[in-house]
Design brief:
alpha+beta; two-stranded antiparallel sheet; globular
């Protein structure tokens, strides 16, 4: 019997068949690329951590990150919301499936989204910390995440061995306005943090992102972004909220 290619039935069957075939191809491609995507994300995270401690540059190839990370990052620490050590790891990083509680495998951005959605309580959040050995000195790198004008912002801040003075910082964003809030990812904004301190004596004071200038002369402040007030406020809140947890650990050590 001849097939009527002009019938509605044929059109429906053909459309369904195409959806099934194309869907199967896309699913296979996604599965095949999953490992590569995860490795790229891992290398990018390593690079960002190393950028904060001035081991790598932001535009340096991510493929160089694993070797440098193993060379410079001596210890991976996981803290609870009270600054108590939950775990300490070193050596090769296992996959997230093998060791979801490894400090490197904690997804602070996902955790922050869950917190904002009231899925995770503040007291249940976990905070990674990375110890870096460089030039005979120890540096401490902490990840952070917050909210800008249009979406999430995040970064890493590296501290000198006094656990007070900032050695380097790197920030990034998902969708801040170019020329305004997006300036948080530029060197001019990030270099302001070098040699700033988060304690006044034994009191935690964080780093303030100041409006209208004045940050250069303030040991605990940096200048905000002109025209990027909401993003600057987001960075300010991110620093205060995140560093207050690490400050407890810093004072104990």
């Amino acid at each position: 019997m001849a097939i009527n290619r002009d019938s509605n039935g044929y059109t429906y069957v053909f459309a369904i068949a195409m959806v099934v075939v194309v869907g199967s191809i896309l699913a296979s491609l996604a599965m095949g690329l999953k490992d590569l995507q995860q490795e790229n994300m891992k290398q990018e995270k390593m690079r960002d951590i190393l950028v904060s401690v001035q081991v790598m540059e932001k535009d340096q190839a991510m493929t160089e990150a694993p070797e440098l990370f193993n060379q410079y990052i001596a210890k991976r620490v996981l803290l609870d919301a009270g600054g108590k050590v939950l775990a300490e790891e070193s050596g090769n990083i296992p996959s997230k499936a093998q060791a979801p509680e490894d400090p490197f495998n904690i997804d602070v951005q996902k955790q922050y989204r869950s917190f904002k959605a009231n899925v995770v309580k503040a007291e249940d959040m976990k905070y990674p910390l990375f110890e870096c050995s460089k030039d005979g000195k120890t540096f401490y790198i902490v990840p952070m995440v917050g909210t800008g004008l249009w979406g999430p912002i995040w970064g890493y801040v590296a501290f000198k061995d006094d656990l007070n003075t900032i050695y380097g910082a790197t920030f990034d964003h998902k969708s801040e306005t170019p020329g305004l809030g997006a300036e948080i990812k530029e060197a001019g904004f990030q270099k302001q943090f070098v040699d700033k301190t988060i304690f006044e004596g034994s009191e935690f004071v964080s780093i303030s992102v100041l409006k209208g200038g004045g940050g250069k002369a303030d040991p605990h402040g940096v200048d905000g972004i002109t025209g990027g007030t909401i993003t600057s406020d987001g960075v300010n809140d991110m620093l205060n909220n995140t560093l207050s947890v690490y400050a407890t650990y810093f004072k104990q050590n």
